[in-house]
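**User:** Here is a favour to ask of a fellow structure person. Please take any protein you like and set down a full record of it. No explanation is needed for now; the record alone will do.

**Assistant:**
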Amino acid sequence: MEFRTYSIPMRTRFRGLENRQGMLAEGPAGWAEFSPFPEYDHVASLPWLQAAMEAAMKPWPEPVRDCVPVNGIVPAVGDGANAARIAIESGCATIKLKVAEAGETLEHDIERVAAIRDALPGALIRIDANGAWNVKDAVKAIKKLDHVAGGLEYVEQPCATVEELAKVRCKVDVPIAADESIRRAADPFRVRDLDAADIAVLKVQPLGGVRACLRIAEQIGMPVSVSSAVETSIGLAASVALAAALPDLPYACGIGTAHLLTSDVVAEPLKPVNGSLFPTRPVLDEEAYAKVAAPAEVDERWQARLAHVRETL
């Protein structure tokens, strides 16, 4: 398969990214995406390539639902008014707010949560710290943010390690969701074995594909939510396919992230309609891709990265 590289600016800095890059390829089953984050080495990037190969070579598993509820996503930047605007514009009944961003304070996070609650009194609010807190700071922040929110739906990855998650879970009343402790772990079931989380967040590319995620969901023994890796709509389609195929889906999914990119590679980006996404198999639009095709030096770097990852297969 021939992989092409894209480079798309983010609307706002998100997860430390200001520009999203990755690769796209077409196989017998359709288009696929390979877009490991910059900090991932060749070994950590291998599941991302396995997910791309699955998407290109195999049809999606049979869906059990024809639409997937999604949450709105609010980056940890800007003031409360900006956070409320983004939340309202998402059209979603569940809002996930990134917190504990470098350079931001707990007071900033409190302001944003309060503004979202005032703007959307009936919405469910969850927060995601991406492992930034230690146990003491996590407990303090969660209790304050839970109070301001009038009750948080859950807190995603408050601390970096499974052991820390387990300690925090014993000290707060808010459910704990594990993300990095699953997708970046040698053993994704450690969160279950240490009673470290109430909810498992699954991401298709980092975990090796839709079917790999379905196997984890079957064995992990806790409710599952699906989240994206900030991909183009081609990558997001795999996340929608996973969410549509899960036997149970008690939580809105964090896959309505196409709006975080200034452009896309398909004619009709996968953006929520009335808070939901629908299973589909988008194809690359040549005109759209031409606008975001990576410069030669970026493509060369990604082609070299791909070659190194392939060597680990």
About this structure: Residues 42-57 form the longest helix (16 residues). The radius of gyration is 19 Å. The chain has a mean pLDDT of 97.
